[in-house]
Give the backbone structure.
Amino acid sequence: MTRHFRVSEADCLEIAGTAHRLIRSDKTGTIWARLDDDNVRLSFSGEELLRLLAAPDTRLKRGQFSDQSAFLRLRCDFRYIATLPAEERSRILWQMTCAKFFLEAEARGDTTRSEASVEEILAELEQCVNAVEHSGQDVGRTPRAGQGYITRKFPCARTLLEWARLYERAGRSPLVFLRKRRLGPASRKLVAEAETLLAECVFGYLDRNEPSQQDIVNKVLERFKIENNGRAEAGRPCLPVPSARTVRRRIKALDPFEVVAQRKGIEAARRRFGFYEEGLMADYPLQRVEMDEWQIDLATLLGDSGALDGLAAGDRAKFAVGRRWIYVAIDCATRCVLGFRIVATPNAQDAIRTLNLIIQDKTSIALAAGCVSRWDHSGGIGVLVTDQGSAFAAENFRMAVADLGATYEAPPAGVPKLRARIERIFRTFGQQLAPMLIGRTFSNPTERGDYPSEQWAALTDDELAEVFTLFVVDIYHNTPHSGLKGETPANAWKRLSTEQGVTPPPDANQRRAVFGIPLSRKLDRHGVRVFGVNYTCPMLQEALMRGADTEIPVRVDPEDLTHISVCLGHEWHSALAVSEAVHGLSLDEWQTIVRDLRTRFKEQASLSEDIIREARRKIRAIDARARELRRIQPQHLTAEALNRLESRLFLGLRVGPKASAASGDLEKPTGRKRPNPDDLLSEVIEPPNAPKPPSDGEQAGPVDPSKSSDDDDWSFHG
């Protein structure tokens, strides 16, 4: 099927540092024009655009040219919350929660945008915000006595209204609560004063007298004229006067619900915008995604199958038995499951890993499970809706959603109809899938009766993952859905993605920056070394020349070690592995190869590269299916675990081309022989057909006195 991505004229496609704007988008593909030369046009089909986004020098900046993004750039120059200090990160997420709860209260009609009205519900809002913030703070499952939560002083009514307006004008991005780093004091003051004066005039449009847009334009001209006359008399520079087009654009950027509510009354707004009570409807794929956690109605064996495969069901049930949880994300427009992850207990990290599955093509997982249908439902997230659980309220989760460019919503607890689609899929699992499996626990003790769920538990984690994948991809996606008027979710996805398009997924660098495992490495003239592999890029070289010798943040994608992302000055950049030997390898594959070499060839100093390449091919073939299924199973790959792994398994390992600072060869004597540039594990591998050292009893050739003893075979350093 031809991919059709949903892009807009406000999006910016940056290729190798050159910005492009959208000219046309249809089912056949997209056409882009360079910003600095409109005569240069580029065209991409859906598949070509997807491959382009995987390149390290490509960025798709969604909404870059929109009013909201322009306003956001006026206030701050940060792109990722993850690059901020922990305290500042926590503060702006708290401010976002305050603004969000106020907007929800306003949408319900509990308050208006007057300070007196806000004062009446201020205590209630503070209580709701504190509850969410406390549930997102990691104090352990059972906090000890005396252990407290961090509680911030709630803003006054005027400040809260200001935050809500800023939050709306910036497209509901928490980054709006930050300030620019590079503007001087004088410049920032002028911009702020002009924006404040313009905002006051524009908000005059929200009046029950219903002034026209031209009335507001005239009011802006009059106010700026009076202000500039006063500034001229005081010898101060005049403020730039906004054009009529700018004023009208700001008026159009106002929240439609707020406009109707303020000009015609709250009841008129409710009649016109029914979705505020019934849940936001979705018109195209990934416009609205609902996500939640659910304890599976099934008792299973807690572990992989492996050695348990040959045992009878009764014998297997003697092992550890329990119930797993599952995170599921569903697309509201098509009812397609965008991703799920089976976990031991609900936690923020696994919720974030589920987010990562939403933006990926999961066909390889479906094939590993034996599915016939494809599982290519993926793309960029528009609005993500969850409940107010602790995993979703955690700072790391909200930060990941914001850094993806998505809008996060958490409707009030106790109103399941606001997340009706995700609640329905859990009932489908319980009513259609669970009855097919042994060890069912049922939804309550009355239904369960005396059914021996734990005694009959037989499925392991990998079998459970395979069962859920088969059910979702081959059964659920191809079954007529009542919410789609009899259409199947798979057909609804094909139809809407073709007609409306799908928001493109994040580029490779953004995906690593958001979902990569966080590490820190010291920068030296070799670049940065991760798992024995040196990585470099022009920005790292420039940082080294500027004297940056401290440790820098690094993000690693365990599925592909070809690139990593490094953070320099609050911006993430792609760094390429110097050695091509690790290109395309996952961390599991690289770890298996290194461990196998250290075990099997411990006493042999050199090894033919041909043998390694053959071993690599076999390992990838054997591990491929199991590796894909592990992406949706309980897994705990943390930064601490990777640091321990690197300190043990990869100790002393260095891979890089010869005669380069990246490999460290410039520090070695010039007479020492070195491996070829793309040798895998250069410390233990010789090029093919390399001369072998004489065996015991074999006469060695004459020794050249001009050569030093450094001509010994390469070996691991321990």
Q: What stands out?
A: The first helix runs from residue 46 to 53. The longest strand covers residues 18-26.
